[in-house]
Amino acid sequence: MFPKLFEFSWLVIHTYGFLLAVAFLAALWASARAARREQVDPAKIYDLGLYIAVSALLGSKALLLLTDLGYYLDHPREIFSLATLRSGGVYYGGFILAVLVGVTMARRQRLPVWKVADCAAPGIALGQSIGRLGCFAAGCCYGKPTTSLFGVKFTNPYSHETVGVPLSVPLHPVQIYESVASLLLFFILWEWLKRKQFDGQVFILYLVLYSSTRFVIEFFRGDSERRFVLGGLLSTSQAIGLVLILAAAVLFYYLKQPSAKPAGAKAR
Fold first, then answer.
1. Best CA proximity match to 206, nearest among 141, 266, 91, 126
2. How many structural domains compose the chain?
3. What's the pLDDT tens digit per position in 149-192?
4. What is the separation of C-alpha 245 from the centre of its chain, rounded to a whole number of angstroms?
5. CA distances from 38 to 133, 199, 217 (A)
6. Four-CA torsion 240, 241, 243, 244, nearest 10 degrees
């Protein structure tokens, strides 16, 4: 819809990249605010933010390459093509690597891991809400054709050239669907910080609600890069979402045990 935010001679600022940066900053700000509420040093959260941001970018690109490994093995130069470099990658790849890096760094800094995870969960949802607006502006991650009142038409040739979105065809605005859902999820998680019964509960709630929402939205996705598993029954993101819901159930059982540190307990 509006892929270029600013263009002057050789200088081009893409809307997607700008909103992605805003998304990271907003997520970090919300996580630091949550940290104050949870009696965690906000400065530590800001320190973790850089590692998490870099790992999220790398992880999303890595999963993008893995989901289409055959193509990139046959065309290795495409790994460094403008189309690949401009692509935001696959969200779950960035999320999983960011979690692994975040847990590792939190332990090194002797921070309460699950309390930090709770602080990060609302920020992640807020960042996603903003980031998906960037997808909508760029035209990537587009939806299937629709005759419903919600259909939107992309008309910018630059979007078609860079991300392949069909032009002048009513499509489900799945980017907006996910943006709105993520914003609602942010408010739910923010409120749940005050109600949680044990550390890690807010993060678990994020895993379940986001994965469930994404599972449904995937049925309306229409971009050609979708990769499917189980004989085409599920998309890659749907399969990963199911695994994360299972992981959330295991975490819930483990962290809810009486031996686990109660919510609000101070870290030593």
1. 126
2. 1
3. 999 999 999 998 888 899 999 999 999 999 999 999 999 999 99
4. 15
5. 30, 10, 32
6. 120
Instruction: Give the helix/strand (H/E) hosting 98.
Output: helix 91-108
Condensed to tens digits (0 to 9), the pLDDT of residues 108-145 reads 999 999 999 999 999 999 999 999 999 999 999 999 99
Q: DSSP of 100-130, one letter per residue?
A: HHHHHHHHHTT--HHHHHHHHHHHHHHHHHH
Alpha carbon 131 to chain centroid distance?
8
Decide if 158 is inside a domain. Answer: yes
Q: Could you tell me the two tokens for 240? A: 């990963």
Q: Read off the tokens for 27.
A: 């997520």
- H or E element that contains 234: strand 234-235
Given a contact cutoff of 8 angstroms between Cβ atoms, the answer to whether 220 and 174 are in contact is yes
The sign of the torsion formed by the CA atoms of 198, 23, 109, 43 equals: negative
What is the rounded CA–CA span in Å between residue 145 and residue 151?
8
| CA–CA distance, 65 with 169 (Å, rounded to integer) | 29
Are 53 and 26 a contacting pair, CB within 8 Å? Answer: no
User: How does the average pLDDT of the chain come out, rounded?
Assistant: 89
Residue 114 and residue 255 in contact, taking contact as beta carbons nearer than 8 Å: yes
In a domain, 26, yes or no: yes
Q: Please give the residue range of the domain that contains residue 30.
A: 8-140+150-194
Residue 38 falls inside a structural domain: yes
Q: Is residue 231 in some structural domain? A: no
Q: Which of 200, 268, 266 is nearest to 38 (CA)?
A: 266
Helix (H, G, I), strand (E, B) or coil at 158: helix
Neighbours of 2 (CB within 10 A): 13
- Alpha-carbon span 256 to 28, nearest angstrom: 27
What is the predicted pLDDT for the residue at 8? 85
d(CA 27, CA 35): 12
